[in-house]
Design brief:
66% helix; two-stranded antiparallel sheet; mainly alpha; 2 strands; elongated
Amino acid sequence: MGRKFIGWKNLWSLTVLVFLRLKPMHPYELQSVIKFTHKEDFLQLKPGSVYNSIARLLEAGLIEVAETNRAGRRPERTVYRITSAGQEEMSKWLRELLEKPGPDTTWFYAALSFLPAVEPDEAATRLQQRSKHLLQEMDNYKAVLATMVPRIGRLPLIEVEYALALRTAEREWVEQIVKDLRSGKLSWSLGLMKKYAARLFDSCSFETSNIPKKTRQKQL
């Protein structure tokens, strides 16, 4: 993919950075938001890894402690926020994931899932570059098929056909998204995202408030 995803560079860390971009949160609130939006299911996030990601992001200087508080007899909670370095890395990371195709499609799913964290014009530019990369891969697959099928037959190269079909379909879809972004048919703004985020956090707070007290204390 052009980047080596080691240490803190994993799906959990990307998810944590994107949500902390919306507002500072403590780990339980963060987990509630992730669960409410089904990111945990769709991106196949491993349970419990949020705490590991927080520790690694702290060490990398991409998030920091905003405050530590205690409500009544509940355990002490630490609230985290994203740093300027975290904002920069998150944006850079998402732009690259949008632009460069890779063997693991989960990363592109993640980038699309967090698309509003990138400006529409920037998203269109990165996706246009992705289309060019896809076209190059398609040309390579076609060249392999044209050269090798006459020699060894179609069956040994059936997976190349499949890869070509996937890239062809993806490029067609990406090109349509770019057109929608350029025309304004698909668009968003910081104000709109804040409005949606406020509704999201209100919904999560409502869901949490309906969890029995004993269950909430165990989860905290």
